[in-house]
């Protein structure tokens, strides 16, 4: 490659602007690089697979955040992802039309700065089990998504495979939130060996997981609050279409 | 191989173009049996590489040159069915209306201005490929940088690293390219930098392969030509030879017929 080309490439990288976003989980401003054209293309391509599209998109979006967030990505969790997505999308185009009504995404981001929520690590006890639950950080979320993706990627998802996929999605989704399980005197760290943790979780009676599901729903509700459009009950779905303008 | 090139002027550029040999036409007809656009692109780029000399052509100029090459084989007329009616159109007249260059498309992002121009490639597999192909200049704080001498991969890297809005940029480029459409016949229009043009070119060049083989057999059998000769004669030349032979045979037949007087 020519020197002239390298000089131009370097200058392009040097003059890139930075987007100011905000992390609700650590209540601090976060700096992001805007989406590159290659990243926009990878988002468009992630919408192709219908059964696994949500996982694909999350995996692609994690890779983008890993490149574009200016500090350690493991500091941030899935609630922050909503705000990051809004910031990156608003850089492409601030205006977002939902049900024929135009919204400013910057107004959504500003509204989100005022949202107060309390969601701490919790211990949930059910009979002789004690589960420690916490909102997953983005690295863990991606790690578990990729386990499912690598299991089903390239498969023709027929009805029996679909049942197995749904069941895996359920177990792995719960696993994302459980950091520790204590049974009698024994304590298991759930995120060190994911496959063993899945085996363990599958052996536990699902009635003991009800409170955990409730905790997960409360996290998802908070994520939805951050995606809610001002003056409306509707919220933005953070999916590939959101970025295809 | 045929080495006699004719001089043409395409968009102000001197372009040397030669006729393709019968063998090249036969091989081309075999290669055109596909509908895969990427393969067709490879076929037509190869035709251009073989039959033109030392010229960097943009997509409109390539189309023009390909029509010249086609017309050297088949003549200016093209017959086709339009609304169940057989019609003939003159391809030379169509290509004379080509506008070879588009006005600069200027797109500004924060701190960087990108200038896009006429694409070079006949085929683009994705929207970022067409954006890359059209990249002409980058304007930075350090000044204006001409990208026309960069390789495709270098331009692709610049585009990928940019914060250009992919869909918006593509739409702006396609809007300008579509405005340079060419009337083929009545309401039939061609957008030259569109992938579907490759299918039109296929239709314009395609020859029935079994007819080609029959013709080659006739030439070998009756003109005493060998396989190597097919590298040096063109299809129209061989057609003329066969016409002469047929005429001679018909004359001989007429001479040998007993007349009523005898």
Describe what this molecule looks like in 3D.
The complex is a heterodimer of chains A (245) and B (262). Chain A is of the alpha+beta class. Chain A contains ten helices and eight strands. Chain A has helices at 3-14, 37-46, 53-68, 78-92, 105-113, 138-152, 159-177, 194-203, 210-227, 240-243, and strands at 19-23, 28-32, 95-98, 101-104, 122-126, 129-133, 178-183, 186-189. A four-stranded antiparallel β-sheet of chain A has the order 5-6-7-8. Chain A has a two-stranded antiparallel sheet with strand order 1-2. A two-stranded antiparallel ribbon of chain A has the order 3-4. In chain A, helix 3 packs across helix 6 (138-152) and helix 6 packs antiparallel against helix 7. The radius of gyration of chain A is 20 Å and the shape is globular. The mean pLDDT of chain A is 91. In chain B, the strands form four sheets. Chain B has a four-stranded antiparallel β-sheet. Chain B has a three-stranded antiparallel β-sheet with strand order 1-2-3. In chain B, strands 4-5 form a two-stranded antiparallel ribbon. Chain B is elongated, with a radius of gyration of 23 Å. The chains are: A alpha+beta (245), B alpha+beta (262). Chain A binds chain B through residues 1-2, 4-5, 7-9, 11-13, 15-17, 34-38, 40-41, 44, 91-93, 244-245, and chain B through 110-112, 126-128, 131, 138, 140-142, 145, 147, 150, 154, 157-169.
Could you outline the blueprint of secondary structure elements for this entry?
The complex is a heterodimer of chains A (245) and B (262).
Chain A: H1 3-14, E1 19-23, E2 28-32, H2 37-46, H3 53-68, H4 78-92, E3 95-98, E4 101-104, H5 105-113, E5 122-126, E6 129-133, H6 138-152, H7 159-177, E7 178-183, E8 186-189, H8 194-203, H9 210-227, H10 240-243
Antiparallel strand pairs in A: 1-2, 3-4, 5-6, 6-7, 7-8
Chain B: E1 5-10, E2 13-18, H1 22-31, H2 37-51, E3 52-53, H3 59-74, E4 77-82, E5 85-90, H4 91-95, E6 105-109, E7 112-116, H5 127-134, E8 135-140, E9 143-146, H6 152-161, H7 166-178, E10 182-185, E11 188-190, H8 197-205, H9 209-223, H10 235-256
Antiparallel strand pairs in B: 1-2, 2-3, 4-5, 6-7, 7-8, 8-9, 10-11
Helix pairs in contact in B: 2-3, 2-8, 5-6, 5-7, 9-10
